[in-house]
Amino acid sequence: MDYLSPVALGFLGSLIAGLMTALGAIPVLMGKTPNRTLRDMSLGFAAGVMLSASFFSLIIPSLDAATERYGEGALPAALAAAGILLGMAAVALLNETLPHEHFRTGPEGPEAPSLRRVWLFIIAITIHNFPEGLSVGVNFGAHGLAEGMPLAIGIGLQNAPEGLAVAVALLGEGYGRRRAFGIAALTGLIEPVGGLIGAAIISVSEPFLPWGLAFAAGAMLYVISHEIIPETHRSGHQNKATLGFAIGLVLMLFLDVWHGQATAALAPPRRKVLDRKAKGLDHFTVVTPGIN
Asked: What is the DSSP string of 55-104?
């Protein structure tokens, strides 16, 4: 798949991750719905994956990219911090301006009496899923297939329990099994939209790379804090949810580090050397050992 452009990779990676939402909702079609404890533990797992991915696949690469571009010092950290806050603020703004409704906590945002309740649920899930697709697209746009794959795998894994949770909640609202499955599956399709946008922005303008990575991380961090963790603690299963959180966090950490080491071992030896003589801290010379 190396012949595909970063934009195409970002779209396809986020599409596959989004389709995992449908895979997670399949038990509803089969008439099997896990108990609330297992669902909360699964959502805790999803939160752990997202938190780990935010730091190891997005924030740390953002700091590295900013350091390469602007040099060491306070500026890279300030840039990453600003990007994270902007990402959180953007999702918070969507949360406040778009009418939507959560299954447990009820309506949020402006009132919209003309919208059917199911559409309010779909808008709420869309606000949740868009940052995940954005993060996958930004990562593929920034690093290509090799380094973008672990995040896509991680987001796909955490999408499965989210799809199940959505489908089960829709069953509780009186929807039939097929309709609950269909709506849950469709909510995952917002992710390739976010993936396409993220990969396109990063591919068009390299200076946006540190900002884009940090922005995507901030958007996911808002979803973790505002949506997922509170949901897992509402029914008194916080201990099981925390166990799932820990498993998801270390699994994503393992995937990211292991895949990165495997990719580095297979790749030709290359290193970036800071060329301070030519343009200060503004550009880098790529040095390939063995090539004069």
From this structure: IIIIIHHHHHHHHHHH-SSHHHHHHHHHHHHHHHHHHHHHHHHS-EEETT
pLDDT-flagged residues of the chain (< 50): 114-115, 266-292
- Tell me how far CA of residue 74 lies from CA of 79, 91, 236, 288, in angstroms: 9, 26, 42, 30
DSSP state of 281: T
The domain locations on the chain are 6-287
102 has which bridge partners? 106
Task: Write b or e for each residue in 1-26: b if 16 or more Cβ atoms lie within 10 A of its Cβ, otherwise e.
Answer: eeeeebbebbbbbbbbbbbbbbebbb
Encoded tokens for 46: 């999803």
Q: Determine contact, residues 151/216, Cβ cutoff 8 Å.
A: no
Tokens of 18: 């989004």
The 10 Å Cβ neighbour count of residue 254 is 12
Q: pLDDT per residue over 91-128, tens digit each?
A: 888 878 876 555 555 555 555 554 455 666 677 777 77
Residue 154, sorted as left (phi over 0), alpha (psi -120 to 50) or beta, turns out to be alpha
CA-wise closest residue to 19 among 143, 153, 147: 153
Structure confidence by residue, pLDDT tens digits, 145-190: 777 788 888 888 888 888 888 888 788 777 888 888 988 888 888 8
- Give pTM, 2 decimals: 0.72
